[in-house]
Amino acid sequence: MIRFDYLRSARPALVRRFSDLHVPPDLKGPLFAIAAAVTIVTTEWFIESYRLSVTLAFEGSYRTQYDESRLQLAKTKVLYVGLERVAGLAKEVHEIQASGDEEAMQFAEIGNRLPPHVWLTSISNDGTGISLSGKAIGLAALSRTFSGLAHTRHGYATTLVSANGDEHAAQAGILHYELRLDGAAQ
Q1: The overall pTM is greater than 0.90
Q2: 184 neighbors 130 (Cβ within 8 angstroms)
Q3: Buried b (16+ CB within 10 A) or exposed e, 151-181
């Protein structure tokens, strides 16, 4: 007859094999050392794996910060180059303003002294005088230009270099003119 013990479960075969295993006393020391070494190495491997994963996570965050800082540095360099360019342009404009202030005032005064129906297409100072070219509606408007320019601060002596009209402009009474102003402040 088979008896069943319902209070205890039967031990698994593997556990029973290990529990029934008898180690001779002279092998217990070396086996304990091997088991301790395996335990220590396994524990150290888990610790080092954890430390490596933490280090790799830090490295990833530092890499991201480094990439962001490189991007910001590139943007900063672009801005710096732009600022250098703007500063250079501002310096050039300032130098032009400082060097040509008197000449600009002369040109503005000449332009302001032109009578109605007379306009400029170019004005230049060649060092010996000022050359003007432009258009006028009729000789009467062009003649008023002479008196207007004579009453400037500089009292220019105005010389008519040429006045002519082309075929289309002549129908509207438009003349192309060139004037030379002498006595310009040099």
Answers
A1: no
A2: yes
A3: ebebebebeeeeeebeeeeeeeeebebbbbb
